Amino acid sequence: MKNTMKAGALLLAGMLALSACGSSDEPASASDSEAASASPSPTATLAVGQEQYTADELLAAVEAVNAAQGGTGEVSDDAAFRAYLTDQSLPEDIMVTPAECEGIAGFANFFGDVDQANLASVKLGSDQKLTVVSHPEASALDAQMQDNDGLLGECAEFEMGDEEFTAAGTTERLDVSTGAPQTQAFSLTMTAEGTTLSGLKVSAATGTTNIVLTNSNAADPEEASAQAAELIDAVLAELEK
């Protein structure tokens, strides 16, 4: 019973984490990274993310998407979501191996440095959270997307647990398309005591702005990915108005 309870806690922690790593449709090469850093950013052709959005603009966008989904979601403005992020961390006795994969075990790391960013989020049901982060400059988001891609390659398999019990985790790149110039996606699977849970993260970057959908109950990745892309595109449409 003790192991079963701990297994459940670890599986839940893994699903709630879905944090800092992502995936791109193709692994970034050195020349790709150099080209990204050398090109002007944001570009003149962006419909969304040309400039940083205000917190009120982001809030209006997620409120509109929530309304279109039936209006029952839990909306968080910038201040509320920042408070939420400060509370999201694994218990101190939980270790992640390899150590470099610790980034996938803390929800707050999911969005990178948000000190100068504006934020808004909506929790849709018990499983999905849709978050929009807009930075002052696109360069911060470009670097994060590149780092995320490398981290995913290192953390295809990892473990999390303590001295008594360990859960196995795997990540897998997914091919998801949205209206944003860059879309990264991965599934996260956690297994312990014969129980397996699967989650999903999709991150769509456009200029200064990152739109992220996490789903902690994604047993059908294809269906969950399609729904994620639809919600992200709905946010893009609202921000473009």
Please, what is the oligomeric state? single chain
Mean pLDDT: 79
Instruction: Please report the number of helical segments.
Output: 6
Task: Output the structural class.
Answer: alpha+beta
Helix-strand topology string: HHHEHEEEHEEEEEH
Strand content: 25-35%
> What radius of gyration results from the CA coordinates?
17 Å
Shape: globular
**Low-pLDDT stretches:** 18-43
Kindly state the number of beta strands. 9
* Helix content, binned percent: 25-40%
Instruction: Give the strand line-up of the largest sheet.
Output: 1-3-4-9-8-7-6-5-2
Beginning-to-end CA distance, first to last residue? 54 Å
**Major sheet:** 9 strands, antiparallel
Can you put this structure into words, describing what you see?
- By secondary structure, this protein is α+β, with helices and mostly antiparallel strands.
- Helix content is 35%, strand content 26%.
- The longest helix has 20 residues.
- About 11% of the residues have low confidence.
Tell me briefly what this model is.
By secondary structure, the chain is of the alpha+beta class.
Strand-helix topology:
Elements: H1 2-17, H2 30-38, H3 55-68, E1 74-76, H4 78-86, E2 95-97, E3 118-124, E4 128-134, H5 138-154, E5 157-161, E6 166-173, E7 182-192, E8 195-206, E9 209-215, H6 221-240
Antiparallel strand pairs: 1-3, 2-5, 3-4, 4-9, 5-6, 6-7, 7-8, 8-9
Helix pairs in contact: 3-6
